[in-house]
């Protein structure tokens, strides 16, 4: 009987701890919508947003993380550095700088379906 109780407690503990993980599965890889922005305000990391460099906003990845972003419509890729928080619109996973959006061919459309992968 004690073994069964211990097993139940262990299973409940594992389930409770796993529910505390990020919803995106460690936020290491993912797919969803992306948009771009070209403001010149300060980012959440404290640096000034520069639309001419390859940066992006993500809700939870650490600042400085390098991410490979692939446009699912045309297969073009770009590597960006996370330096801001966002996007705050349901279904979107990244906000890209204008330069990054231009590299993957999504400036004219404003948004695109992308997949991303943490590379460092």
UniProtKB/TrEMBL annotation:
GO biological process, any: cell wall organization
Endpoints of the signal sequence: 1-27
Membrane topology of the entry: Lipid-anchor
GO CC terms: plasma membrane
Major subcellular site: membrane
InterPro entries recorded: RlpA, RlpA-like_DPBB, RlpA-like_sf, RplA
Compartment(s): Cell membrane
Function description: Lytic transglycosylase with a strong preference for naked glycan strands that lack stem peptides.
Family statement drawn from the similarity comment of this UniProt entry: Belongs to the RlpA family.
Listed HAMAP family: RlpA
Record's protein name: Endolytic peptidoglycan transglycosylase RlpA
Source species: Rhizobium anhuiense
Taxonomic lineage from the root: Bacteria, Pseudomonadati, Pseudomonadota, Alphaproteobacteria, Hyphomicrobiales
Protein's gene: rlpA
């Amino acid at each position: 009987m004690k073994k069964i109780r211990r097993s139940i407690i262990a299973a409940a503990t594992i389930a409770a701890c796993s529910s505390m993980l990020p919803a995106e599965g460690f936020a290491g890889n993912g797919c969803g919508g992306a948009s771009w922005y070209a403001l010149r305000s300060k980012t959440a990391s404290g640096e000034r947003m520069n639309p001419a460099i390859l940066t992006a906003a993500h809700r939870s990845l650490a600042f400085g993380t390098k991410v490979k972003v692939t446009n699912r419509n045309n297969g073009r890729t770009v590597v960006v550095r996370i330096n801001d928080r966002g996007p705050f619109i349901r279904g979107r996973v990244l906000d890209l700088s204008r330069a990054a959006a231009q590299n993957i061919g999504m400036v004219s459309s404003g948004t695109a379906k992308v997949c991303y992968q943490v590379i460092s």
